[in-house]
Amino acid sequence: MENGNNVAASPEEVRRSPAFGWAARDTSGVLSPFTFSRRKNGENDVTIKILYCGICHSDLHSVKNEWQNSVYPIVPGHEIVGVVTEVGGKVDRFKVGDHAGVGCMVNSCRSCHECAGHLENHCPGMIFTYNSTDVDGTVTYGGYSDSVVVEEHFAVRFPAGMPLDRGAPLLCAGITVYSPMKRFGFDVPGKHIGVVGLGGLGHVAVKFGKAFGAKVTVISTSPSKRQEAVERLGADAFLVSKDPDEMKAAWGTMDGIINTVSGNHEVTPLLSLLKTFGQMVMVGAPEKPLEIYAFPLLLGGKSIVGSAIGGMKETQEMIDFAAEHNVTADIELISMDYVNEAMERVAKADVRYRFVIDIGNTLSAT
Amino acid sequence: MAELGNGKKQASPEEVHPRKAFGWAAKDKSGVLSPFAFSRRNTGADDVTIKILYCGICHSDLHTAKNEWSNAIYPMVPGHEIVGVVTEVGQNVQNFKVGEKVGVGCIVNSCLSCQNCNRDYENYCPRIILTYNSLDVDGTMTYGGYSNMVVVNQHFVIRFPENLPLDKGAPLLCAGITVYSPLKEHGLDVPGKHLGVVGLGGLGHVAVKFGKAFGMKVTVISTSLKKEKEAIERLGADAFLVSSNAEQMQAAMGTMDGIINTVSADHSIAPLAFLLKTHGKMIMVGAPEKPLQLPIFSLILGGKTLAGSCIGGIKATQEMIDFAAKNNITADIELIPISYLNEAMERLTKADVRYRFVIDIGNSLTEA
């Protein structure tokens, strides 16, 4: 392997602690056992023995190369929680035995304007937890594995008493909705927030919304989710987006909308729900371009905004807030060898609302 | 009385208003304008009567006259960039006197009691009444500024400071407020920030002038290279990008705090979104007919905003006019007699004007 001409070093040439996980080898996305290695714990690093890892829909997109950027083999997983087993000499926020999590990022340049502003998620040199080329030239491997070594800056402390399994999905789904809700003032008590789509992201947005003291209306294509949304998740109201009368009655009533839908859909009817100056935040990523008619935006000074995860400071803040307000994800805990079946169910949105792999109890080296 | 499609009865001003007036109106969707005698109301207690001296031609006048927005009621007297002199005031009017120079923009009435009106956003009042082609509170259709006089509730009248030229100031009443309002609302008025202006027409050229007056760096983004000299040497823009020049666009990626997009033709917005910095905002003030195609990654990467904006409230309009007067900001105009009106409209469809036609009403509009 020639390192001089931009070819990724094989991790085994650079890293020396053995590791074990499940990886996808090709665009079928099917995962199977995989041995690899992690770097030795450096002076700024924290080593985490992984106990749980959430399955994010992005994991599915990546293993199937749907974003045309997959480098196989891929070990997915960026909703990682476990226990600290080693800390480097310069680490001061963690000690061995602490519970810690890792989300979607494991590194950034730490010197640009974005990094200085705690927006590592927008750093041009940001490195993802998996399927990214790290600073040492190796490809990053994610949390469907037994351990991870990460710079302290990118590890998140889990407060005592915070459930690890139900907290894991917050590391991606949680921060993805929390960050824009804070940024756009949807966290002010009494505001009326719409949540479009009731899946991994949507159900957490409802919980945060209620914890913020907002009135929350869920907008969904499926009437069958109404009872769940209102009675179990605590939403104040439920609109079926295909029902024109229900939608019309809600025109101009919402301060903001969090749109978690990643299927292709019409956004114009959703813009009508916003008050003057209302903002619709897109956290889902539909494949086809959105069709945006000018007048629904102009008449009312409305906005469509994009948002992508959040910075590390905010991620810690989000976990602390969740711990304080008992916000956790609704999960289906699965064993490692159920993962392929779980992925198929994720493709059909057949889960309430996040799978979490019980790594600690079910991942074993063959 | 004519029956409007929504069941409301529309009165013609001629049936209800006693004062004779005259102007030019479009009679059908050809949009061709011709002399038209009509009526205005008497000066009410809260009203200001204005003898019109100048009226700017806004592209919206053309869209509306040709029924391109499917809401035209004929006959239609367009014009919402009106400047003139006060000839009469009602008994409740304290802030305007006979002889004062004043302007009227796009709004002649609103409910003045909803949340938006109370926050000085009459432009977003659900019961807004526009200066022309709108159903007024007395059941008549409003007629605009391609006419000799107008009677307006004082709340919607804008004082023109002494040093602001009337002809070159008129277009500010629509074009000016349309760009000024969102620039202020979105914090794109901070010295040192970088503003992109897409499209160099009636709205765009005024946006460049305001941007420079705010102390910003201004880059014009246009489809035509031949506007570069003009943009930089005469309007004071700091830089110029040709949107079809991939290299230039690439070099400017991630450099702009905000973009004001004045283009009303169909165009591609994703390449423009990539010019924005993290958390940058693109404000749409033009209204393309076809929907914009927005690949969502162009907003998600960098957490960017696409915002719409429509004119501005009355308080902001007065503030804008005062700011313009203080900073010598006026529109670049081509002054025309009313007889040239149809030809001007045709040139407007081809964007063949630098940058706003203004009708010299006072000197050229005479009763037929």
Q: Your description of this structure?
A:
The complex is a heterodimer of chains A (366) and B (368). In chain A, the strands form four sheets. In chain A, strands 3, 4, 5, 8, 9, 17 and 18 form a seven-stranded mixed sheet that branches. Chain A has a six-stranded parallel sheet with strand order 12-11-10-13-14-16. In chain A, strands 1-2 form a two-stranded antiparallel sheet. The longest helix of chain A is centred in the middle third of the chain and has 13 residues, at 200-212. The two termini of chain A are 28 Å apart. Chain A is globular, with a radius of gyration of 21 Å. Helix content of chain A is 25%, strand content 26%. Residues 1-5 of chain A have low confidence and may be disordered. Chain A is α/β, with parallel strands linked by helices and 366 residues long. Chain A contains 13 helices and 18 strands. Chain B is globular and about 60 Å long. In chain B, strand 1 and strand 2 (9-10) form a beta hairpin. Chain B has two domains: 19-174 and 331-360, Alpha-Beta Complex (Quinone Oxidoreductase, Chain A, domain 1), CATH 3.90.180; 175-308, NAD(P)-binding Rossmann-like Domain (Rossmann fold), CATH 3.40.50. The model of chain B has no long low-confidence stretch (mean pLDDT 95). In chain B, the strands form five sheets. In chain B, strands 5, 6, 7, 10, 11, 19 and 20 form a seven-stranded mixed sheet that branches. By secondary structure, chain B is α/β, with parallel strands linked by helices. Chain B has helices at residues 13-16, 59-65, 115-118, 166-169, 175-185, 202-213, 228-234, 246-251, 270-273, 297-300, 314-326, 341-349, 361-364, and strands at 2-3, 9-10, 19-26, 33-40, 47-57, 82-89, 101-104, 107-109, 129-130, 149-153, 157-159, 194-198, 217-222, 239-242, 256-261, 276-284, 292-294, 305-308, 333-336, 356-359. At the A-B interface, strand 14, strand 15, helix 10 and strand 16 of A face strand 16, strand 17, helix 10 and strand 18 of B. Strand 16 of chain A pairs antiparallel with strand 18 (305-308) of chain B.
